[in-house]
Amino acid sequence: MPPAPNTVLTAARFIISIDGKDTSFSELAGINSEVESSEYISVDPGGNISHTKQYGKTKPPTITLKRGVDSDTKMWAWHQLVLTGDPAARVTATLSLQDAQGQTFQKYVLEGAWCSKLDIGGLKAGDSAVVMETVTIVCDYIEFQPG
Predict the structure, then answer these.
(1) Which pTM does this prediction carry?
(2) Which of 96, 105, 126, 133 has the fewest CB atoms nearer than 10 Å to its CB?
(3) Sequence-distant (≥ 6) Cβ neighbours of residue 26 within 8 angstroms
């Protein structure tokens, strides 16, 4: 059941799905979509100058996710395709936000997505902290789909 309107959402996990294969993440660091503003100056027939801001250049959306390193190497393999310039690295992926019961309450379809950055957190011998993998995904377009 979807949350009530105006309810602040909390998510227990974030799932990236590519070709039916899922990878689970514990943290969504951000979904960024941006349109730069551009200054527009015009003069009307009466000589009055008008300064306005207009839509400018769009930037490709980015998604940053984090998870503890485990035996799942799908993100590493995806990033390797990008590094080799393989056109198959550009995919349509789905980012699902799930509650503690595993129910999806929001989805984002990522068109033309590719893994632009993969970062394995710093390691210290003898430390018991979880080693984190940070994945940055760039895409052409994000389509929001409510749960």
Answers:
(1) 0.82
(2) 126
(3) 13, 14, 66, 67, 68
At 86 the three-state DSSP class reads coil
Homologous superfamily of domain range 13-146: Hcp1-like (2.30.110.20)
The pLDDT tens digits for 64-99 are: 999 999 999 999 999 999 999 999 999 999 999 998
Helices (H), the chain: 74-83
Considering only the C-alpha atoms of the chain, give the largest distance between any 2 of them, rounded to a whole number of Å: 75
> Please, is 39 exposed, middle or buried when counting C-beta atoms within 10 Å of its C-beta (0-12, 13-18, 19+)?
exposed
Quick check: helix, strand or coil at residue 4? coil
Q: 65, 16 in Cβ contact below 8 A? A: yes
